[in-house]
Write a structure and sequence with these properties.
mainly beta; 6-stranded mixed sheet; 4-stranded antiparallel sheet; 10 strands
């Protein structure tokens, strides 16, 4: 299993920015995904990045505001979030895949208010 730990969440005003980080052991060969879950809603896949950092995919509605990046030397995957809105309030997770059988971190809370 891959161990994942998210950090960087917090309280931000609408229009602000946050940078989340996912630190992991043993994921160098895997895609890493960012997923979020708002209260009372199903988990929502946001984006993913390939093992070499060369390929990224985004949920259409996130394009232009969110950017995923990978630092292989540090073994981290970051999510830069700009122009945050109240609807972005959620618990943000990194995971090896978007399914319950994958490895997920514990999540980091982002509150836009």
């Amino acid at each position: 299993h891959v161990q994942l730990v998210e950090s960087g969440g917090g309280l931000v005003q609408p229009g602000g920015s946050l940078r989340l980080s996912c630190a992991a052991s043993g994921f160098s060969h895997r895609y890493i995904n960012w997923i979020r879950q708002a209260p009372g809603k199903a988990p929502e896949w946001l984006c993913r990045i390939s093992s070499d950092g060369q390929s990224t995919q985004y949920r259409e509605s996130m394009k232009g505001r969110f950017t995923i990046s990978r630092d292989s030397a540090k073994n981290t995957v970051d999510l830069q979030m700009n122009s945050l809105e109240s609807d972005d309030t959620a618990l943000y997770y990194c995971a090896t895949d978007f399914n319950r059988h994958a490895d997920w971190g514990q999540g980091t809370q982002v509150t836009v208010s």
